[in-house]
Amino acid sequence: MGLDHASQPKIEVSSMNYLLSCHCGRNTIVTRSQAGQVVLCACGNKLSVPTLRGLKELPPADALNVYRSSSTTLQAAESAWKGWRGILVSLLATIFVCSIGYGAWNLFQRLRVDTSYTEEVERQAGRELIDKMDLHALNDTFYQFTKVGVGEKSLPPFKFIQDYAQQCEQAIYYSMGVAAVAALGATVLMMASLVGSRSKNTGTP
User: Fold this and answer.
1) What is the Cα–Cα distance from 63 to 13, expressed in whole angstroms?
2) Nearest to 12 by CA among 61, 57, 49, 70
3) What per-residue confidence (pLDDT) applies to 167?
4) Domain residue spans in the chain?
5) Which helix (H) or strand (E) holds 74?
């Protein structure tokens, strides 16, 4: 049997055409000249066209039947998104977009952080500053330390930079993980809705 799918989109509705149903719920228009051949459904399944005698048992592809067939498919697809599935998919899509945006923002912030400023660099900068001081400046600095002290304990600049870079990296990982879970959940729900709509069309459980 030959596979005839190039001529499928060009078939026009007439009294000599018939509706050949697929288990996906769609109807494919076939002609008497395709009797005994194999055609492709829009879902990709191969459909065997009955013989000329078997074609007479198929519903004719008049304008009313074609309209009813397309309306049934559209209603089944729309009903699958009415209710908790549609709301949940919309929520997951919102979470996905927000997670991607939050991850991109943290990535931008991480790229702006210069982590080359390490503890050793800061110590070297302090040594160079001390080396540039004259004796009078060193005495004044020593006097301030002995009188006032070093002040409140604070986080060194290099440590603050490293901690901020690490926080950005963790936020990127977390946001990408949440986005992946949301995308997977939305995909599963969409596939379940599609399978459910096909089952309703074919009448299978």
Assistant:
1) 7
2) 61
3) 93
4) 8-77, 84-124+153-198
5) helix 63-79
CA distances from 170 to 102, 166, 175, 183, 202 (A): 12, 6, 9, 20, 48
CA distance 11 to 31: 8
Q: State percent of the chain over pLDDT 70.
A: 69
CA pair distance 14, 60, nearest whole angstrom = 8
No. of helices (H) and no. of strands (E), the chain = 6, 4
CA distance 104 to 97: 11
**C-alpha span between 178 and 100 (Å, rounded):** 9
At 32, is the pLDDT very low, low, confident or very high (cuts 50, 70, 90)? confident
Q: Are 161 and 114 in contact (CB under 8 A)?
A: yes
For residues 40-55, give the mean pLDDT. 84
Name the nearest CA neighbour of 173 among 89, 97, 91, 107.
Answer: 107
Q: Give the integer Cα–Cα distance in Å for 205 and 196.
A: 9
